[in-house]
Amino acid sequence: MEVPAMAHHCEEILLQIGLLSSINVSVVKTLMEVELRVQIEGQGSKSIQAANMNEVERGVNPQLWHACAGGMVQMPLPNSHVYYFPQGHAEHTLTTVDFGGIPRVPAFILCRVIDVKFLADMESDEVYAKIRLNPLGNTDIGYNRGIDDGVLVETRNVHDSSDKPSSFSKTLTQSDANNGGGFSVPRYCAETIFPRLDYAADPPVQTVVAKDVHGDVWKFRHIYRGTPRRHLLTTGWSTFVNQKKLVAGDSIVFVRAENGDLCVGIRRAKRGGIGGPDSPSSWNSYSGNSSSSPSFYNGFSSFIRDNESKLMKGNSKRNNVTGRGKVRPEDVIEAASLAANGQAFEVSFYPRASTPDFCVKASSLTASLTSQWCVGMRFKMAFETEDSARISWFMGTISSVDVADPFHWPNSPWRLLQVNWDEPDLLQNVKRVSPWLVEVVSTMPMIHLSPFSPQRKKLRLPQPPDLPNEGDYVFSSFSGNPLGPSSNPASIQGARHARFGIPLMDLNLNNTHKLQLGLFPSNETPPYMDTKKDDVSCLLTMGISSSFKMEKVDEKIKAPLFVLFGQPIHIEQEVENLSIKNENQELDNGHCKVFLESEDVGRSLDLSVLESYEELEKILANLFGIENFDKSYAHVLYKDSKGDVKRIGDEPFSEFVRKARKLTIPLDASNQNDKRKWNISVQSGEHGLESSKHSGAIMTIFAL
Amino acid sequence: MEVPAMAHHCEEILLQIGLLSSINVSVVKTLMEVELRVQIEGQGSKSIQAANMNEVERGVNPQLWHACAGGMVQMPLPNSHVYYFPQGHAEHTLTTVDFGGIPRVPAFILCRVIDVKFLADMESDEVYAKIRLNPLGNTDIGYNRGIDDGVLVETRNVHDSSDKPSSFSKTLTQSDANNGGGFSVPRYCAETIFPRLDYAADPPVQTVVAKDVHGDVWKFRHIYRGTPRRHLLTTGWSTFVNQKKLVAGDSIVFVRAENGDLCVGIRRAKRGGIGGPDSPSSWNSYSGNSSSSPSFYNGFSSFIRDNESKLMKGNSKRNNVTGRGKVRPEDVIEAASLAANGQAFEVSFYPRASTPDFCVKASSLTASLTSQWCVGMRFKMAFETEDSARISWFMGTISSVDVADPFHWPNSPWRLLQVNWDEPDLLQNVKRVSPWLVEVVSTMPMIHLSPFSPQRKKLRLPQPPDLPNEGDYVFSSFSGNPLGPSSNPASIQGARHARFGIPLMDLNLNNTHKLQLGLFPSNETPPYMDTKKDDVSCLLTMGISSSFKMEKVDEKIKAPLFVLFGQPIHIEQEVENLSIKNENQELDNGHCKVFLESEDVGRSLDLSVLESYEELEKILANLFGIENFDKSYAHVLYKDSKGDVKRIGDEPFSEFVRKARKLTIPLDASNQNDKRKWNISVQSGEHGLESSKHSGAIMTIFAL
DNA sequence: CTGTCGGCTACATGCCGACAA
DNA sequence: TTGTCGGCATGTAGCCGACAG
What we know:
The structure is a homodimer. Chain A is 22% helix and 21% strand. By secondary structure, chain A is of the alpha+beta class. In chain A, β2 (109-120) and β3 form a beta hairpin. The model of chain A is unreliable at 1-56, 139-163, 275-324, 445-582, 584-604 and 666-704 (pLDDT under 50). The interface between A and B is medium-sized, with 19 and 19 residues. The structure holds a DNA duplex.
């Protein structure tokens, strides 16, 4: 045995001994490893000490913070301007807040950001921010006042400083969380985030040192081994999992900070899917009590989940830090009082909580309110995927534009929009959204989105070459995009990820009828179209004054009066009708319609018009530009209405059409470098798939 | 293998498997054991659920409660009368309480006990009681009003219902708490408390089922095995230890309740010995702020200890249930306000906390205040031993009689007595005590106590035949007890464990000078005697009115005026002087003095007058009436001033005299049935043992 | 009688490559 | 490339009698 090999042998042995008190070993590297083990074992008590300390407001590394907060979160920079919504702040308490004691709290208050502190809960590691705000005396939404133009400072996010992403997140598998105490490190993470590994060693092994949100140091043995070779974290990993109480489905984030430090953070999985709240609450039933905020849920479920016992273990009965109410009602009252009095105040914002940010970038709000919101408008809205790994855009249609809580906040645009989602199953609890959170796709359906795709990092999905050409999609006779990338210059200024508002006036209505005709059998009229079309309150916009005006729409008035920048605007009734016709029918009656959406949103198919598996195969191959799709086609899986997973061909095609809800296509055949799966979710029409074999099933395909 | 043996074999195996999912075993007993294991394993989560519940006020079995509370605790029965001391209540907060907001709170308020609830902390299992009290309009201390005579209901304690004790407590050894997960069951416990074991089986084994203070059921495998045979708890024990976070030194209590249930409770060890507080506080330095209660400690240290981390593990940072402040200042304020207004109120009393009961049995208070308290009086007071296993009586001398907190509670007898302890090391933090807690032994030293010994159960110490005869004690020329068992009939009425007050008038002063002469070289006067003797406020008594009067003693007045039952009383100056002479000299100068105290209090020797180990041996043998003491004498251990433990003879006798502080004598030789050890604590004189070899060391011997 | 110890067994933890997706 | 599995080594929990105090 030559010396290096023996040294390595000793190292291996010592690492597994664990309890090493006074072994005299002359190999330096081995001693380092011993130290590693000892320090890891010592971390238990250290962490406990930390948990017993009072919350220390030592800041979290901002890059790590953002990585933990998730891609959806943008925090304002100091000196930028935001609108503070007490109403939204109250939602964070997950209970009701009585603002009765404070006279005249405005619905939103323009503030200058004094300071943002990036923090993390000592116990759960949940990241949060303390934002110090200074109310500006004049809370006009200053489209003409220059707030947007000069004063506003750009928000920052984790990607701002460098184009090359310096973080990597992975959702823990069962094996990562449960078995044997190891963690499979994706090669990308090992090679781009971790320190360089000496592959000459056999096996290549190193100690990875990472700081968590508290600055506590964790050490992991990183080894490259196995056949085929793969990167693993072994010693130290299970300690981390246990201390942080991680379970499969939680995510771990590695961040290479600007100072070179490797940081590690966690994102707890959400329970119950996107928009899954912990207590059911319907937005359609107003609870008319004196509370300001009936429970809202916008698309983020809270931290609590089925195996929350793992987190509650050992927690005091009096401790609800990890549960609801990280923000207390009195905190909201205090902030709102100070804000209403023009005094500086501080709010805590928990980006992983269930509720949207209540400090809205001034430019976003301004832009969103200069747009005209109309029933029937198509929009998309970004959500985190259920595993928090990526952002998905979901399509929806505005079903109503009205003030969410007219009794308590009569002038508030907060959750102004009632929406119907193309995939209501996934977003059942998101009934209302605020306009600045959505991006208008079109006031009509069938306009593809590629030019609108928001700037995103690591968009790994290849752009099928024919994607922008909607003519290639089945069942659509719609021949072009009548609008193109249209934008309101005022509304996007200063907003990097601006939500686009497309002025209604820009609409070219000529082609929409084509679309409609193409979608519906010309001799058939959707059943309720005539009864519904006059029954819609349509549009809202706002003036310059801080409390924008909204005229209640008289159902008898064909062209109601709205105010835009103080000027009355008349709405074209045709547009309104068009939207209603298209969208409501589409949602309520599943005939032969195709959605072609931005590539990771998914695609919709109407299965009911297909005759055979062969036909489906052609369409799918066509849709994704896959050559030799037949090789993969046999591996396509689908989930039926009962949740059972089956394979294409397992049952007669008619049965398949009736039952299929979600398809998963392995794409190996099309691209050797992209083996990701596709999900095709099937959305049933109004009549239900079970009740009629003629009712069409709409399949929406989105990237996993 | 015959069937029973095989069945037992299976049982053994299955018990050790632990994880048994679907093994088909036809032996009924074996299945029972499997169930045992499963339930024990399931208890972890159950206990966690319980900890997360809000405190449930389900009562604790009173017998179990008393066993956990300890032998010192007597709780009043409903309809009995107690005096409520807000001042004492405030001590339970372990912080300062500002009564400023409540006008005129009396120092003590006579109340009728409405209800007593026996409860236990959900997390720590610490027992406490909620006592509901109804203030009586007239709070006179009614010596002549009959309160003591007819109305008072006797207190109850754990021994009341049956002469045969139905509980057993054991302090956990290292082996019990740490090793191998087993518990050595003392034979007495196994045979008298546990269910009867079938000794015909091989080995004899059974499942012991016990309920804890919450009613949760714990199951232990109880086996009688080993050579020599002994009782052990195995399976289930370490789970219990871990869940309850027990450490060596904690005590476990098994109680056979009246309904036949076996109950199990715990008593956490105290840190730092008797009277060891968590924060140093001297009673001699008044902190003259506006708070009502500078920190008091009477002789019970709080629950916190060195390895409190074991208890804090997993507790929330916001949770201080297990720490200080189980009683909050606002609780005291509320109770005091209601009490002062004559409204019913409720208090929580934690008998294991550091502070004495603030609900004082009316008869005890009455009795104690009809006695006359004088500087120099000798008394004894009961304390729990450090391991909480038994009660020890400690001797002391009243050094001052004055109101503890004259600014806030000018009329309060609470902690009226400043005391010097014969063993100050063990009771350093007990500077002041309340008169009802002490039992006057004599107003002079050297009066033996046997006739006064309070009624105690299981007094296992044999009464040495010559103990009552003080003439046998070395270095005492004092030839007799001039008083004999003297008592004030009024003061002991209705008080089962009454503290005796000896009227000063009964003192026979004739022999005291003899004593003094015997104790001091006639040609030597203690150095500070002349300067101090006029500087003592001596006596306090009280009138019938609720606020007793105390005249401030003018140092220039030789015979100050005191009020007893409204009548002025003149104090004989000689008595005063005597007390001062005897006691102060004794405490400050260790010349040739002997304390002979009640048998479990300990005995004091002045080592400095001895010449040799042989002489010591004779004295010790004599002192305890041990025959053949030489057999044990070689095993006598002593602890020196540095805390080192040595054996008699390890060093020269002069060295031994200088250093020895505490002796432990195994008494095997004297009594085969009583192998308890004796501690002899050595108390150094004023000059310090190190500074002069002539300064005497006083040894106090007390039972362990 | 009972506290502590070392021996022993069984189990849990955790590292490993195999294998397959 | 990486998730999961079985194999296996190691450390530890926990039951046991020996032995001594």
